[in-house]
Amino acid sequence: MFGFGKKKKELINDEKLYAPVSGKVADLATVSDPVFAQKMMGEGFAIEPEDPVVVSPAAGTVTVLQPHAVGLKRADGLEVLVHMGIDTVSMNGKPFKLFVKVGDVVAGGDKLAEVDWPMIKAAGFPLTTMVLITNSKDALDKFSVNYGPAQQGQEIGQATSK
After folding, report:
1. What is the signed CA dihedral for 96, 101, 102, 103, rounded to 10 degrees?
2. Cα separation, 119 vs 24, whole angstroms
3. 147, 131 contact by CB (below 8 A)
4. How confident is the model at residue 69 (pLDDT cuts 50, 70, 90)?
5. CA distances (Å), 133 to each of 79, 86, 93, 130, 151, in order?
6. What is the mean pLDDT of residues 101-108?
7. Cα three-residue angle 56-60-66, rounded to 5 degrees
8. d(CA 26, CA 44)
9. Catalytic one among 68, 73, 74, 83?
10. Are 16 and 160 within 8 A, CB to CB?
């Protein structure tokens, strides 16, 4: 009832990348915010969300938790950030409901959050969601993603560490 004795999930070494939401996967260069488009926050991809549930784009341990973003550290050391919407930090968490906490271990496709996309759209912010490898300059060896339509939790690419 209280989670006592609940078996803790083990971190697996999984180099695959998964679609965090159903939608169209696009190159970061197409994103309206230059910080993301110019890869200042790292290599990655963007997706235009079509449903409210956001799942983990990688297997990892939750290391960063903000209402609009969830950071993960993979077993191989790559740091993956899911950033939900653009400029949504200014919404003070209102459209976001998180389902993980720092220290949780997740697999690719595990539920991270639910987002009220219509609220974000009504506030005038882009819904574009980014998946970024924030330590890509130092730790990323190979990165590949299949662009186009994808279903939430679908394997869409791979990232290999150095």
Report:
1. -150
2. 20
3. no
4. very high
5. 5, 17, 23, 10, 21
6. 96
7. 60
8. 10
9. 83
10. no
Q: Is 68 a catalytic residue?
A: no
Phi, psi at residue 117, to the nearest 5°? -60, -40
pLDDT confidence tier of residue 1, bands split at 50, 70 and 90: very low
The encoded tokens of residue 127 equal: 């819904």
- CA-nearest of 121, 123, 150, 140 to 46 is 150
pTM, to two decimals: 0.93
Structure tokens at 98: 């998180």
Q: Which tokens go with 55?
A: 């799942």
Check residue 51 and report its DSSP letter.
S
Sheet strand arrangement including 140-145 = 16-18, 155-161, 140-145
DSSP-assigned states of every residue in 113-127: EEE-HHHHHHTT---
Residue that wins the pLDDT comparison between 46 and 10: 46
Instruction: Round the CA-based radius of gyration of the chain to a whole number and report it.
Output: 15
